[in-house]
Design brief:
- By secondary structure, the protein is of the alpha+beta class.
- It folds into 2 domains: about 80 residues, no CATH class; about 80 residues, Winged helix-like DNA-binding domain superfamily/Winged helix DNA-binding domain (Arc Repressor Mutant, subunit A), CATH 1.10.10.10.
- It is built from 8 helices and 4 strands, in the order ααββαααααββα.
- Strands 1-2 form a two-stranded antiparallel sheet.
- A hairpin with a 2-residue loop joins β3 and β4.
- The longest helix has 15 residues.
- The two termini are about 30 Å apart.
Length: about 160
C-alpha cells in the first residue's frame, strides 16, 4: 500500500524514482516514456532519445500552443552545441525572463512592460527585446507589440521547467 501511495504522490508531482536496473518504470506513471521508447524502437534509435511535448493556452488570443518534437540521443550528442549558445544565453538574464513573464501575463507593448518592477528604462527594455527576438524566443507582433511565438511557447516552458530541476 505504501508503494502505491508513493507512486501516486510521485505521479501527482510529476516525478518518480527510477526503476531498478533492467525493469521498465511503471507505465501508469511514465506513460509518455513508454510511448517514446516504443517510437524509438521502431526507428532503430538504440541510444534512446528525448521528447518535448505540451499543450498550453497561448494567452490573450484564446488559442492553444500544441507542440511536440523528439530527438535521438546520438544526434543530439554529436551536434554542434555551440551554435545554440545565443539562444540559450538569451534566457540567462533575469530582466529578459521577467519581460517574457510579463508578455505571457498579457502585457504586449514596451509601455506596458516598463511598468514591471526591475526591468529598467525603455531603452534597456528595447535592448533586451531585440536579444530575445534575435534568439527566436519573441517575435514582433506589429505596432510595437511583442509576443512569444506559439511554436516557441512549449519549448520555453519546458526549458524553464528543466531549469527548476
Amino acid at each position: 500500500m505504501t508503494e502505491r501511495v508513493t507512486a501516486l504522490e510521485d505521479r501527482a508531482a510529476g516525478t518518480a524514482a527510477p526503476a531498478p536496473a533492467g525493469e521498465l518504470p511503471d507505465p501508469d506513471v511514465f506513460w509518455a516514456l513508454h510511448r517514446l521508447r516504443s517510437e524509438l524502437a521502431e526507428l532503430g534509435e538504440e541510444d534512446g532519445g528525448v521528447m518535448i511535448v505540451g499543450t498550453v493556452a497561448s494567452g490573450p488570443s484564446g488559442g492553444r500552443a500544441e507542440w511536440q518534437q523528439a530527438f535521438g540521443t546520438a544526434a543530439l550528442l554529436e551536434s554542434d552545441w555551440t551554435s545554440l549558445a545565443d539562444t540559450v544565453a538569451a534566457l540567462g538574464q533575469p530582466v529578459r525572463l521577467r519581460l517574457i513573464q510579463g508578455l505571457l501575463a498579457g502585457r504586449s507593448t514596451v509601455a506596458e512592460l516598463v511598468e514591471l518592477d526591475g526591468v529598467g528604462t525603455t531603452g534597456q527594455i528595447y535592448h533586451h527585446l531585440r536579444q530575445l527576438v534575435a534568439a527566436g524566443w519573441l517575435q514582433a507582433a506589429g505596432r510595437g507589440r511583442y509576443e512569444v511565438p506559439p511554436h516557441r511557447l512549449v519549448p520555453l516552458l519546458v526549458t524553464l521547467g528543466a531549469a527548476r530541476g
